[in-house]
Amino acid sequence: MKKDNSEYLITRDNNIYEVVIGLEVHAQVISNSKLFSSSSTTFGAEPNTQVSLVDAAFPGMLPVINEYCVKQAIKTGIGLKAQINKRSVFDRKNYFYADLPQG
Amino acid sequence: MSEITSQTLTELVENIKNKNISSEETTKAFIKRGEKSKDLNVYITQDFSSALNKAKDFDKNPNFELKLPGIPIAVKDLFCTNKVKTTAGSKILSNFIPPYESTVTQNIWNEGGILLGKLNCDEFAMGSSNETSFFGNAQSPIDKGLVPGGSSGGSASALAANLTPITIGTDTGGSIRQPASFTGTVGLKPTYGSCSRYGIVAFASSLDQAGPMSKNVKDCALLQEIISTYDEKDSTSIDFKRNEYSKDLTSNIKGKKIGIPKEYRVDGMPKEIEDLWTKGIEYAKVCGAEIVDISLPHTNYALPAYYIVAPAEASSNLARYDGVKYGYRSKGENLIDMYEKTRSEGFGDEVKRRIMLGTYVLSSGYYDAYYLKAQKVRKLIKDDFDEAYKKVDAILTPSTPSAAFKIGEKNNDPVSMYLNDIFTVPVNLAGLPAISIPAGLDVKGYPLGLQIIGKAFDEQNILNIAYAMEEKIEFKNKITDWWIK
């Protein structure tokens, strides 16, 4: 808890809490191809014309991160005066959804 | 000239280059023997007529500069092959025909290799005996009713039975080295990142590596130099300087320091394995190597850590098999019902067991206790090897804790089956290269293998040590052709 930030403190049931708010922002990166495959991201294209073997989760297909999207993310971070981490890690979540070919 | 099918890869290449035999003759010989060997059940898919056409095409316009000039080769059915059915030994992919080629197999075809067919394996490479295959157990040519090991069991059988001059497998916890050990053949698991995983049906992505299987070390070195390439399509492929492993091969290993880890002397180790190891140490000394006692203190925790990490990754990798896009699909009342029926009917018992294990150890509340802990153990195992390699150049151990067992012998006891991987699993967890070479026979005449573990990217060194020891061991496989009528 930081000092001199009393405006972020609230008291409930005789306990003091610091208010910390995080935002989860979903925004599409402006790029020509998808984040983990080389498929096009052109808006308004015919259905199923921008699906690669990676997107469709074919056996043995591997995601490769789009370097341009990483650069865009770093630029965004710099623009927001945020700290840029030198190391990033991905975790997978699994759901059986109709629109999630990888599961 | 000896019979075509009993020649080594090196001999075949030489004979084709010198025009003593044609690619067509060679391919025909392996096809003929394959057709007489149905009892071994090594093939899931035979691609014989196509192979013969390719061989004829090669002979019409031969390129003898290639490293595998018109050489027919059968491969494990875990490698996706363009327009040729690829099943991973599973019902759920029993009708799957990929419209693409794995990088490793493409490398083989680029050097003139010709696909003979796809070889039996444990379902999704999960097994140590080939018994979990949906297509039935591949038989070992060593003896009737004997398992060839697994998961690359069909590959090992086909190779030992002279149905293919060389082959490739995949190794997640021992799946190349254990079947090589059981069938008197050579098998190399390369460093993680050496061979591209692109187009290989995934089991546990942080452990899977493809590698060569062969009748001798020289052939192994040649195939490794062909299949190991940097590949942008696999983000874990590593761009390091690869040797010309067969050209750089030497049996001069004078002064090399070889470590003997005391923790591998496990309780209840059969005397014949103990004796084999002692014999191996003597051979290494005769070759001029220096033997050093070392310790890998966390060895005991490797198997439990592996059986958390591997199922966890498998449960995620296998989530894609839902009956929607390709493969087997069952009829359901609605989407969820279809998913459930497809996966219930499409996967076998061992695959289901590992998906459940993996899902459990990744579930919230258990993640820290199991998965995170296992990852920490994995780091300690890697540190053990790093520490040992300050003192030695390579490590010598037995490949397996026993010789091959009978089909059905361990069916009701998954843990006893898992124990088969005890000497091979630490290598995968640490991402290191290791080779198994045949080194002796047990009392029943079944082959036993020795494992040489190397430093990361030091395939050349373990190939050299294996090459030197092979010369001294002079192992001969006893294949009686009992299955040929």
Integer-rounded radius of gyration of chain A: 20 Å
Give the second-level CATH assignment, the architecture of the domain at 4-253 in chain B.
Answer: Alpha-Beta Complex
Strand content of chain B: 5-15%
Number of strands of chain A: 2
Question: Strand order, biggest sheet of chain A?
Answer: 1-2
**Helix-strand pattern of chain A, N to C?**
EEH
CATH 4th-level superfamily of the domain at 4-253 in chain B: Amidase signature (AS) domain
Mean pLDDT of chain B: 96
Largest interface: A-B, 18 and 31 residues
Biggest sheet descriptor of chain B: 8 strands, mixed
Q: List low-confidence stretches of chain A.
A: none
Largest sheet of chain A: 2 strands, antiparallel
Shape of chain B: globular
CATH topology of the domain at 4-253 in chain B: Amidase signature (AS) enzymes
Which CATH class of the domain at 4-253 in chain B is shown?
Alpha Beta
User: Helix proportion of residues of chain A, in percent?
Assistant: 10-25%
Distance between the termini of chain B: 25 Å
Query: What is the helix fraction of residues of chain B, given as a range?
Result: 25-40%
Task: Describe this entry's structure for a reader.
- The complex is a heterodimer of chains A (103) and B (485).
- Chain A has one helix spanning 67-79; strands spanning 9-12, 15-18.
- With 103 residues, chain A is mostly loops.
- Chain A has a two-stranded antiparallel sheet with strand order 1-2.
- Chain A is elongated.
- With 485 residues, chain B is α/β, with parallel strands linked by helices.
- Chain B has a domain at 4-253: Amidase signature (AS) enzymes, CATH 3.90.1300.
- In chain B, helix 5 packs parallel to helix 6 (177-183), helix 9 (302-317) crosses helix 11 and helix 9 packs across helix 12 (368-388).
- The longest helix of chain B has 21 residues, at 368-388.
- The chains are: A little secondary structure (103), B alpha/beta (485).
